[in-house]
């Protein structure tokens, strides 16, 4: 029987950071989706708003997951910047989605 014990402290910290980042991302996602396109009168502005909501519905979760994966990959390769990328993932994703939606790219 092996008496070797692994130090799980860093693993638990990274897992906790990922869970916190995803929880914050979920809260931001709920706030994005709660916004209503008013007035509901069938106008072109309403349809443009609906299209923006549809874009946010798919783009925000995908960019959040991509940021978390990028941070985890950087962390696994030994770069401490991965922790910052994981922690900031929801805000990075929100910034990218809003910039793309506003036509900055």
Short descriptors:
single chain, about 100 residues, mainly alpha, elongated
Helix-strand blueprint:
Blueprint: H1 9-34, H2 44-76, H3 81-101
Helix pairs in contact: 1-2, 1-3, 2-3
Structure description:
The chain is an all-alpha fold. The chain has a domain of 58 residues. The protein is 76% helix and 0% strand. It contains 3 helices and no strands.
Radius of gyration: 18 Å
Structural class: mainly alpha
Mean pLDDT: 84
Please tell me what the overall shape is.
Answer: elongated
- Residue fraction in strands: under 5%
Order of helices and strands: HHH
Total number of helices = 3
Main β sheet profile: none
- Through-space gap between termini: 58 Å
Instruction: Report helical residue fraction.
Output: over 70%
Spans of at least 5 consecutive residues whose pLDDT stays below 50 are: none
**Count of strand segments:** 0
Short description, anyone?
It contains three helices and no strands. The chain has 105 residues and is mostly helical. Helix 1 (9-34) runs antiparallel to helix 2 and helix 2 (44-76) runs antiparallel to helix 3.
């Amino acid at each position: 029987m092996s008496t070797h014990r692994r130090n799980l402290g860093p693993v638990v910290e990274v897992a906790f950071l990922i869970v916190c980042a995803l929880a914050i991302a979920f809260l931001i996602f709920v706030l994005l989706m709660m916004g209503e396109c008013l007035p509901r009168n069938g106008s072109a502005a309403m349809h443009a708003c609906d299209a923006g909501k549809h874009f946010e519905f798919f783009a925000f979760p995908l960019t959040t997951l991509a940021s978390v994966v990028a941070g985890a990959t950087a962390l696994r390769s030994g770069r401490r910047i991965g922790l910052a990328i994981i922690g900031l993932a929801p805000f990075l994703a929100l910034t990218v989605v809003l910039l793309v939606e506003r036509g900055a790219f």
